[in-house]
Amino acid sequence: MSLLNTVPEMVLTTKVDQLLNWTRKSSLWYMLFGLACCAIEMMQTGGPRADLDRFGMAPRATPRVSDLMIVAGTLTLKMALRTKVLYEQMPDPKYVLSMGSCSNCGGLFQLAYSVCDGVDKIIPVDVYVPGCPPRPEALTDGLMLLQKKMMQERWLVREPRSRAEAARV
Amino acid sequence: MKTEAIQLLLHERFGAAVGPVESARLSESVEVDASAVAEIALFLRDDPDLAFDCLSNLSGTDRPARGKIQITYELFSYVHRRAFILKVDARRDRPEVATVENVWPAANWLEREVYDLLGVVFVDHSDLRRLLLPDDWVGYPLRKDYVEAPEYHGISTVRPSALKLPEPK
Amino acid sequence: MSLELEFDDGREVFATEEMTLNMGPQHPSTHGVLRFIIRADGEVMRSAKADVGYLHRSIEKIAEKVGWRGFMPYTDRVDYVAAMTTNQAWAMAAEVLGGVTVPRRGEYCRVIAAELGRICSHLLAAGAMGMDIGAITPFTHAVRERELINDLLEELCGARLTFNYMRVGGVAWDLPPGFGAKVLRFLDHFEPYVDELDDLLSNNKIYIERLAGVAVVTRERAIAYNLVGPNLRASGVKYDIRKHLPYSVYPEFEFDVPIGMGLHGSVGDCWDRYIVRLHEMRQSARILRQALEGLPEGPVIAKVPRNYKPAAGEIHVHVETPRGDQSWYVVADGTEYPYRVHIRTGSFAAMSIIEELSRGLMVADLVALIASFDIVAPEVDR
C-alpha cells in the first residue's frame, strides 16, 4: 500500500496503526545471526544484486538494536542455549525469521546427535523460509511476507496487550 | 626411505614396543605400543634421516570387534617430502595413550578431539577437555555403541517427521 | 591480577586490572560461530582461548549412516565457501577404495569446477578480510564478482552454494553447451578485476599498517602446528598438494605456487597470507584457461554399481582446498556404509595456533588474524 502521493495536496488519510506499521516495516534492522551456509546466502542477499538495503533493512551486530533475527544455519544444541539468551536480549517488538531447512526442522542434519532439530524448539518463529540454502529471491520473498504480516498488527488499544495478541486480531 | 627401513630403524632402537610393517591393500603402517608412542614420536621428529616434522592427521577409530580403539597418526616430513603412518591400539575399556603434544603442537587439539568423541585419555596432556561438544555432554558419540540421549537441557532431540529416515545403525 | 604503576618517587599512578572479554559465538564476521575468551590488559591481550563446537553437526558420524553415495551432499556443508573441493576429496576417497577410474573428461570437469570454487572462496576471503579491518567496500565488490561465478556454477549444476556436483566415478552432469565460452568471458572480465582489488587494497597504507608484521608465523611454527595451504605458503614453505602430491589431472597444467616474501613486514605475517591468496586467484584463472582449451571428449562419469560396496581397506586422501590440504582418513569394511570417516581440515590447525599467536596482540589484531587465516567454522567443527 502506498501512503504518499495519494492526494496531490499531500494530505494523507490513514489509520494510525497502518502508519506506525508502515514506518516499522520500512526500517527493519536484522541481527547478523548467520550460523552456517545460509549465512553466506544472507550476505549475498544483502549484497549488490539482491539488495536488502532498498527495503531499509540494515545488518546489525548486536541484538540490542535489532528488530529481526534471521536464524540462518544449523542450530546445534551447544548454540541453542545461547540463541535463547540472544533472543531475550532483543527489545520488543521483535521478529524471528527461520532461514533454511536446518533452522526450520533440522534439515539434512536430523540424523545428527548434536543438532537441535529446528529453531522453533527454542524461540517463536514468525516466518519460515525453506531451501538449502534459500536463494536470495526466496529470502527476499520471506522478508516481504514478514512485512505483510507486520502491516496487519494493531497497536492502539485501551489496555496494553502483548505483540502476540496484537498480531492475532 | 621405505616403510620397511623406517620400521627397522625404530625396531633397532625401541625393540619390542615396535610391531612389524602391516601391508594393507592400499597403505602400509607400523603399529607401536600405546605407552611408548611419545618417545618414538620424538625420535621420528628429531632423527635427521627421518625428520618427520609435521603431524598431518591423528584419527581415532572404534573397533569393538577387536576390543580396541585404534589411533592412526599420519606423519609427514617437509625435509624429505615423505609420509608415514603410525598406529596405536588402546584397550577399549580403559583407553590410555601417551600424548605426543610435546613433539608436535598440532597434536594438542587433535588429541582433544579424539578424547571428546571417542573417550581416549591422552596421558600427560596439558589440557584434556572436550573440544567440540558442550562440556556437560555425556557419552562418546563416535563409539559404535553410542545411544543418543532423548534430550539436552530440556530440548528434545526428536522431531516428528513425515520422512522415513534410515534406521540408526 | 592487577598491575600497579608508580612514579619514580614511589607515588602510585593507578592500578589496572585484567578484563575477561567474550567474543562470540555471535559476532559480525563472516567466519561463522567461533568464540574466544580474551583476557586483556586494556587493549593488549594476554591470551585468547578459542572455544569451538558451536557448529558441530556430527558429519563424520552421519557418514556411517548414509552410505558412500549418500554422503556427497554432506561434504558440501563441511566447507560451504568452497564446496567443490570437498566434493572432490570424498569422491576420490570412495573411488580409490573401490578401484574406480574417472574418465578424462570427468576429471577436467572436476578441475574446472574446483578452480572456479577456489576463485569464489579467495574472493570471499579477501573481501571479508577487508571488511574485518574496516573497509566495507571491497566486500561488496567481492560479493558482486562472486555472483558472476555463482551464475556460472548454477548453470553447471543447479545450485549456488552447496553444489553436490561430483559423484563417485565422475561428475553428475556434463558442461552445458556454450559453458566454456561463458567462463572465458568471465575470466576476461575477472583478471583485470584482480588487478583492481590489488590496487585498492594491497598497497593501501592503512591495510599495510594493520596487517604487515602482525602475528608473524615462522616456518618452523607453521610446520609444527600443521598449518596448510595459503597459511603455510605465506610462511615460506613451498608446498601445494596440486603440485607436490598431484591428483586428478593437475600434472597436465602449468601454474605457479606463490609463497610469502615479506614485502611489507616479515615473511609469514597477515599481509603475506592475504597476498598469497590474491596471487592464487590469478593462478586459478591460468589453470581454468588451460583446462578449457584442452577439454577432451568422452563420458563424464564411470559406471558405478548402484549398491556401491568398495572392498575393505583404508586410505588417506589429500586434496588442496582453498583453505589448505584436507586430509581424509576413510575406512571401508566392505559394506555400503563407510566404517569411519575423519576429516582433518586446514582451518582446524589454524584455530589451534591462534592462542599462541595472540599473546601480546591487540584485540583489533585478533580480528585481522582470524581473517588472515581464512577460518570457516564448519571446517573446524564439522
Topology:
The complex is a heterotrimer of chains A (169), B (169) and C (382).
Chain A: H1 16-25, E1 30-31, H2 37-45, E2 59-60, E3 68-72, H3 77-89, E4 95-99, H4 101-105, E5 127-129, H5 136-151, H6 163-168
Parallel strand pairs in A: 1-2, 1-3, 3-4, 4-5
Chain B: H1 3-14, E1 18-23, E2 28-32, H2 37-46, E3 54-63, E4 68-77, E5 82-91, E6 96-98, H3 107-118, E7 121-123, E8 151-152, E9 155-156
Parallel strand pairs in B: 2-5, 6-7
Antiparallel strand pairs in B: 1-2, 3-4, 4-5, 8-9
Chain C: E1 2-6, E2 12-17, E3 19-23, E4 35-41, E5 44-51, H1 59-70, H2 72-78, H3 83-98, H4 104-133, H5 137-157, E6 166-167, E7 170-171, H6 179-202, H7 205-211, H8 219-224, H9 230-234, H10 241-244, H11 270-293, E8 313-321, E9 324-332, E10 340-344, H12 346-357, H13 363-373, H14 377-381
Antiparallel strand pairs in C: 1-2, 3-4, 4-5, 6-7, 8-9, 9-10
Structure report:
The complex is a heterotrimer of chains A (169), B (169) and C (382). Chain A is an alpha/beta fold and 169 residues long. Chain A has helices spanning 16-25, 37-45, 77-89, 101-105, 136-151, 163-168, and strands at 30-31, 59-60, 68-72, 95-99, 127-129. The radius of gyration of chain A is 17 Å and the shape is globular. Chain A has one domain: Rossmann fold. Chain B has one domain (3-144): Beta Polymerase, domain 2. Chain B contains 3 helices and 9 strands; from the N terminus they run αββαββββαβββ. In chain B, β4 and β5 form a beta hairpin. The longest helix of chain B has 12 residues, at 3-14. The radius of gyration of chain B is 19 Å and the shape is elongated. The N and C termini of chain B lie far apart (42 Å). Chain C is 48% helix and 15% strand. Chain C is built from 14 helices and 10 strands. In chain C, a hairpin with a 2-residue loop joins β6 and β7 (170-171). Chains in contact: A-B, A-C, B-C. At the B-C interface, β3 and α3 of B face α1, α8, β8, β9 and β10 of C.
Give a brief outline of the structure:
The complex is a heterotrimer of chains A (169), B (169) and C (382). Chain A is α/β, with parallel strands linked by helices and 169 residues long.
